[in-house]
Design a protein that fits this description.
Layout lengths: L1 H17 L41 H8 L6 E8 L2 E8 L2 E11 L5 E8 L4 E5 L13 E3 L2 H4 L4 H9 L6 E3 L4 E3 L2 E9 L4 E8 L5 E8 L2 E12 L12
Antiparallel strand pairs: 1-2, 1-12, 2-3, 3-4, 4-5, 5-6, 7-9, 8-9, 9-10, 10-11, 11-12
Length: 239
C-alpha cells in the first residue's frame, strides 16, 4: 500500500515538472499620436521682371514722309551701285531690269532684259531689245532670281518704318539730289559705320543711300527716278 502511494506521488511530481506555465505578455502600448507639426511657409523668390528695351521712336518728320509712299503705284529709275548701272521698271511685285548689253545665259540663249516676280521669287531672261535680238526675238531662258533681285526705294522705306535702323537723327537742312528735294536721316551703328538715307520730300522713299565707314563712302543712287508712269504691260513677260 505504501509503495502505491509513493508511486502515485512520483507520477504527480513528474507531470508537474513537464507542464510549463504559460507566460502572460503585457500588451504593447500603441504609440500616442504626435501632435501635427506646424506647416512651414514655402519661401518663393519674387520673379525678376525683364528689363524692357527702351522704345525708340522714329523722328516725326520721317514718319510723315514715309506715309506719303502710299501714293506710289510704280517707279522707274537707273539703279547705280558702284560702277554698275541698269534701267529698272517696277510695278507692284513685278520688275523689269534692262541690261546694258545682252547677256548669254547658261543654256546659250542671249537675253537683254530680266523679268522678276518678287512675290513668286521667279526670274526669266528675255531677248526683247529689237536691235541685238533681231535674229532671236523674245528668246527666253530662266535665270537666277537671287542674282538679279535688288532693293527698291519702297523696300528701303519699309525697313525704315520697321525700325531696322534706329535711332535716326535728322540733318537740319534739306538737300537736292538730282533736282529733287530730300531730307537726310542718319543711322549710326556705334561700330564705326553710318548710313545716310536721302528721303524724297514728295513721295517719301529713299532715292539715295550712303554707307560711310571711316573715310570710305559707298552707296546706291536711284537716278532719274520717276513715279506712277509704268504700265502693267511694261513689266509683263512678252509672248
Amino acid at each position: 500500500m505504501r509503495s502505491h502511494v509513493l508511486l502515485s506521488l512520483v507520477i504527480i511530481l513528474f507531470i508537474a515538472a513537464c507542464v510549463t506555465p504559460q507566460q502572460q505578455t503585457s500588451p504593447v502600448p500603441s504609440p500616442s499620436p504626435s501632435a501635427p507639426s506646424e506647416a512651414q511657409p514655402v519661401q518663393t523668390k519674387e520673379p525678376i521682371a525683364p528689363i524692357a528695351a527702351p522704345i525708340v521712336e522714329l523722328p516725326e518728320k520721317l514718319t510723315t514722309l514715309l506715309a506719303k509712299r502710299s501714293g506710289i503705284t510704280s517707279m522707274k529709275y537707273s539703279y547705280k551701285s558702284g560702277t554698275n548701272s541698269v534701267r529698272v521698271l517696277v510695278r507692284g511685285t513685278n520688275m523689269k531690269i534692262m541690261l546694258v548689253s545682252p547677256m548669254k545665259t547658261s543654256d546659250g540663249t542671249f537675253v537683254s532684259s530680266i523679268y522678276l516676280d518678287t512675290n513668286q521669287r521667279t526670274a526669266i531672261g528675255v531677248c526683247d531689245d529689237p536691235v541685238p535680238c533681231k535674229n532671236y526675238p523674245n528668246a527666253k531662258s530662266p535665270v537666277s532670281f537671287d542674282a538679279f533681285v535688288q532693293k527698291t526705294p519702297t523696300d528701303w522705306a519699309n525697313e525704315l518704318e520697321q525700325k531696322k535702323y534706329v535711332p535716326l537723327t535728322q540733318a537740319p537742312n534739306d538737300v537736292n539730289v538730282e533736282d529733287r528735294t530730300t531730307y537726310i536721316f542718319t543711322y549710326d551703328d556705334n561700330a564705326g559705320t553710318q548710313t545716310r538715307f536721302f528721303i524724297d520730300a514728295f513721295f517719301g522713299v529713299p532715292i539715295q543711300i550712303q554707307t560711310i565707314t571711316g573715310e570710305s563712302t559707298t552707296g546706291t543712287l536711284y537716278s532719274g527716278i520717276g513715279f506712277n508712269t509704268v504700265k502693267a504691260s511694261d513689266v509683263a513677260v512678252p509672248n
